[in-house]
Amino acid sequence: MASAVLTLLLGGLGAATARAGTDGSLYVDNATADCSDSGPGSQAEPFCQIQPAADAAEPGDTVYIARNSASYAPVTISSAGTADAPITFKPTTGNGAQVTVVGRGTTAVTFSGAQYVDVLGVRPAASGVAPLAINGSAHISYGTTSVTSTATTATVAAITVDGSSSDISLTRLSVAYARGWAFSSAAGAQRVTLADDLFLGEAGGGVSAAGTTGIVLAGDTIQTGCGNAVSLTDGSSGSVENTVAFPGGTTTCADTDGTPAEILTPPSLPP
């Protein structure tokens, strides 16, 4: 009987999901031959891509992503941390200068149903779609990196927040975009903060928020080639503080594109 019980316990342990260890650290490195997307995500055997690490992450975990010259594949983060134990994604030493996630016709970094997730130093880049999209998520912070959009249509924003997201913080971002908006939030979004960001547009607007409650711009710098620097409409509320807007770019704009460097806010917003 004892032998049968021991066999059952060992079988159960063998069926458990492999994890890197008990210290709450997971590793991603697409430049090492030892990586495996079905592995434990340890330093010795890291994941090759960010997606399996995001899927495996639990409250309090930190995902370390190697700065490599090769870009990483697009990732959808649906992880759920807690207020006391958020999940963190951050760069670590690799063979390159930064962590870059590239979407070719698809969003590079998507948050979908995520909660209490902090991302630092992960650069999203995409063409034709938003490089960074936050959908149905809450308590998300993203910062200390650049965002690159090469979209050529006026309807695409570099960063989007949908109407079911709340408590979003975007800080110390450098956003370069050829067309469209740097940032767009949809009606229903709540408590969105843009702080110490640099938005550089060649032929687009800056920040657009429609029906967004509690949007805060603080210490941002916005260059727009065509379109308003800030457009808060449809009952949006919040504040704009210490934000500099100026025209730039060489593109000829249509009269309907808006006014470069103009900050358009509801009358109820404090100056």
Report on the architecture of this protein.
This protein has 271 residues and is mainly beta. The chain has one domain (62-264). The protein has helices at residues 2-15, 50-56, and strands at 25-28, 62-66, 75-77, 87-92, 99-104, 109-112, 115-120, 122-127, 132-135, 138-149, 157-161, 166-185, 190-195, 198-210, 213-218, 221-224, 230-233, 238-241, 244-247, 263-264. The protein starts with a helix and ends in a 7-residue tail after the last strand. Residues 1-17 have low confidence and may be disordered.
List its salient traits.
globular, 20-stranded parallel sheet, disordered N terminus, 20 strands, 271 residues, mainly beta, 8% helix
Give the gist of this structure.
The protein is mainly beta and 271 residues long. It has two helices and 20 strands.
In the predicted model, the low-confidence regions spanning at least 5 consecutive residues are 1-17
Total of DSSP H or I helical runs spanning 4+ residues: 2
Strand content: over 45%
Ends distance:
78 Å
Compute the number of strand runs. Answer: 20
Element order: H for helix, E for strand: HEHEEEEEEEEEEEEEEEEEEE
**Biggest sheet record:** 20 strands, parallel
Overall structural domain count: 1
Averaged pLDDT:
87
SS-derived structural category: mainly beta
Helix content: under 10%
> Radius of gyration, Cα only, in angstroms?
21 Å
Shape: globular
